[in-house]
Design goal:
This protein is α+β, with helices and mostly antiparallel strands and 404 residues long. 27% of the residues lie in helices and 34% in strands. The longest helix has 21 residues.
């Protein structure tokens, strides 16, 4: 089946702005390793099969870049058989490096003789329309969300769970369909330290690396423990100093690190983590973060590592299955891709996966923003509400900034 696909590849420079070559339906993932774009769908495959499918493509690349696919899974790993958890084999794969050099794969079904004829640089002629007016409204009040947190705290107090991550939503309505390309370009400018993505209508800028694998090297950068940023430097420094020393935040963070280390030890060797978490300062919030590294088994690939690690306590809680049940009981909506793995993987099994946070689901002129908080013993419900407000800031500001 998989050997019926062939690719041709060409290289050239990007001679226009990114927004000029993007299509509204493109899947996009942007990191320090460049811009990854997948366009069109030839076929779809289960996540565990996609590396073999890519590996079986027939063709020769002119550089070190290999055929790749972009994925965005759903939060609930039990939903792996859902159609929206299949990964597309695209018609085109476009990588733009940090020097604006493009590697452009075109995939065709059949033999090399039937391959797609080479074309010039991608040119997309879909006009881009900016919204003039955007409205935002929370579907639940602060008191309603506080009640949910109090319910979770009762579960924690009686020992049902140690940590549970609860999310809320913010609804957006615009006067015209919201163009994801505008949001992608805005997030690239406003969130340069984050992974910017757009997959199946989900768009966001996540600071959190679930896992990346290159050759035998594995790296994770889990984040847990948060403070909102302040305009005054003294206030900001004081809050971050508290974040670094507060035992509630340190314990919440350590739960995540212990979980990731124990999971990695089942599939990798030489698992190590930095002894003291560092602070990642982002435009809207600051997080505690710890670098975790490991050596992959020779047969391991990125998708295997994702299956092993997701969901972490940073997006679900612990114990995982109990936390997932409490989320289903309390939260009141389907997270879909929120809190799920999103990224790219190539034919060697290498790639990157962020966690889909600081994101929105866009459908036409409407969008739904997501923000979550980790609840542990000692959590203050009103402070957790304020934290979600700060986390909404990434996409809320991006939405406002694309209006004209």
């Amino acid at each position: 089946m998989t050997n019926n696909y062939h690719f041709e590849v060409e290289n050239y420079r990007l001679d226009s702005s990114l927004s000029n070559i993007l299509s509204p339906e493109d899947s996009i993932f942007i990191s320090s390793r460049g811009i990854y774009i997948c366009r069109g769908v030839l076929d779809t495959f289960p996540a565990n099969d996609i590396v073999d499918v890519l590996r079986a493509l027939e063709g020769t690349s002119a550089n070190d870049h290999k055929p790749f696919a972009i994925f965005g899974q759903t939060f609930d790993p039990q939903a792996n058989n859902r159609a929206d958890n299949l990964i597309a084999l695209p018609q085109e794969m476009i990588h733009i490096d940090n020097h604006q050099w493009i590697t452009h794969f075109r995939i065709s079904k059949g033999s090399a003789q039937n391959a797609i004829t080479r074309q010039e640089a991608p040119s997309v002629h879909h006009s881009i329309e900016h919204p003039h007016h955007i409205e935002m409204m929370s579907p639940e009040s602060r008191d309603q969300f506080v009640d949910k947190i109090e319910t979770v705290l009762k579960h924690i107090e009686i020992g049902n769970a140690t940590k549970v991550v609860i999310a809320r939503q913010l609804n957006v309505s615009a006067d015209v369909p919201i163009d994801i390309r505008l949001l992608v370009c805005e997030l690239m400018d406003s969130q340069p330290e984050s992974y910017v993505f757009a997959v199946n209508g989900f768009v966001g800028a996540s600071p959190e690396l679930l896992v990346e694998k290159f050759s035998r090297s594995i790296r994770c950068l889990p984040m847990a423990g948060t403070r909102r940023r302040h305009a005054r430097i003294d206030d900001d420094d004081a809050d971050i100093a508290d974040l670094q020393t507060n035992m509630k935040d340190r314990n919440e963070h350590q739960v995540v690190i212990d979980d990731i280390v124990s999971k990695l030890e089942t599939v990798a060797s030489n698992v190590t983590s930095s002894e003291v978490p560092h602070v990642v300062r982002l435009p809207h919030v600051a997080h505690l973060a710890t670098s975790v590294t490991a050596t992959a088994a020779p047969s391991s690939d990125l998708m295997t590592l994702i299956t092993t690690l997701h969901p972490t306590p940073a997006v679900a809680g612990t114990p995982t299955q109990t936390a997932m049940k409490i989320i289903a009981e309390v939260e009141g909506f389907d997270r879909d891709m929120y809190g799920a793995p999103v990224g790219w993987v190539d034919s060697s099994g290498d790639g990157q996966s962020a966690i889909a946070i600081r994101c929105a689901q866009v459908k036409g002129a409407h969008a739904r923003l997501y923000a979550g908080v980790g609840i542990v013993s000692g959590s203050d419900a009103l402070q957790e509400w304020d934290e979600t407000q700060a986390k909404f800031g990434v996409m809320r500001d991006a939405m406002m900034n694309i209006t004209q």
